[in-house]
């Protein structure tokens, strides 16, 4: 048996991003159930996860339904004490829990003015005073956590659940070019380069059509995270490998990269790799061989 996790659109569902990171970033296997936002899919999917109302929702291997990311984090940490979801040092662990709790409940102005959209980056979104106040608060608590724990990259030492909770904030800063100090921007850039974040965004880039609710008319700029290796989908099934690097199934879809043809078992496997080849270790093992 394994965990089940209900998620919404990867490009837009910031809460789903948090929930998924609590598994992927800490190497906990999970079976995903995806549902399109603003349709009946999510409500219909959640009928099997009573009493949950929204994504993400987890079901444990013994059948307990756990909505809400903060509850998911605590339950996973209890069941997987060696996974590293929370820092082992008591002081750092306490600070990490403080940060996660504040993120879970706060920053309403930032959430409202800058809904997560991983598919675009804007030059400016004219953040109002309330959003700038949220950004100032983020600067305060991030600096406090790093100073108290002596951390340079993440908030409380090694990457923890607290950092997973702030990943959607990093996405918002990247998407809306929000003004932050160099120290805070270094923390944001660490998120954008994190392997799990890159995998989620790569899938989000090709995971369904754009959602009109998230469209904004601001001028655009390139995504400020790591630049993906150039690749493209191509027709046919001829490839240098016979089995998909992810599933092991026969190749049916192919991408081209640096003049080479590498194959996959379906369009999703291929296209998520085209979106960011370096995000996928199994693909890179073939590419670098």
UniProtKB/TrEMBL annotation:
Gene3D superfamilies the UniProt entry points to: 1.20.1050.10, Glutaredoxin
Protein name in UniProt: Glutathione S-transferase N-terminal domain-containing protein
GST N-terminal domain: residues covered: 12-78
Signal peptide start and end residues: none
Matches recorded under InterPro entries: Glutathione-S-Trfase_C_sf, Glutathione_S-Trfase_N, Thioredoxin-like_sf
Domain of life: Bacteria
Native source species: Cypionkella sinensis
């Amino acid at each position: 048996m394994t965990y089940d996790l209900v998620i919404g659109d990867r490009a837009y569902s910031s809460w789903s991003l948090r929930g998924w990171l609590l598994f992927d970033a800490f190497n906990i296997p999970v079976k995903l159930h995806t549902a399109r936002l603003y349709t009946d899919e999510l409500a219909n999917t959640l009928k099997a996860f009573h009493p949950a109302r929204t994504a993400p929702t987890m079901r444990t291997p013994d059948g307990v339904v756990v909505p809400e990311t903060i509850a998911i984090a605590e339950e996973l940490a209890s069941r997987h004490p060696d996974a590293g979801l929370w820092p082992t040092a008591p002081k750092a662990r306490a600070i990490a829990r403080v940060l996660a709790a504040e993120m879970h409940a706060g920053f309403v102005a930032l959430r409202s003015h800058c809904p997560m959209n991983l598919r675009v980056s804007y030059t400016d979104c004219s953040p109002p005073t309330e959003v700038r106040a949220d950004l100032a608060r983020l600067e305060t608590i991030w600096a406090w956590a790093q100073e108290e724990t002596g951390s340079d990259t993440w908030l409380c030492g090694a990457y923890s659940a607290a950092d997973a909770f702030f990943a959607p904030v990093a996405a918002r800063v990247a998407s809306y070019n929000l003004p932050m100090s160099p120290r805070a921007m270094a923390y944001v850039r660490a998120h954008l380069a994190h392997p799990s974040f890159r995998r989620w965004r790569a899938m989000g880039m090709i995971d369904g059509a754009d959602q009109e609710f998230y469209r904004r008319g601001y001028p655009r700029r390139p995504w400020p995270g790591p630049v993906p290796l150039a690749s493209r989908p191509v027709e046919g099934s001829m490839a240098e490998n016979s089995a998909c690097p992810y599933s092991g199934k026969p190749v049916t879809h192919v991408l081209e990269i640096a003049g080479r043809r590498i194959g996959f078992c379906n369009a999703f496997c291929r296209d998520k790799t085209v979106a960011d080849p370096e995000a996928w270790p199994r693909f890179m093992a073939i590419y670098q061989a």
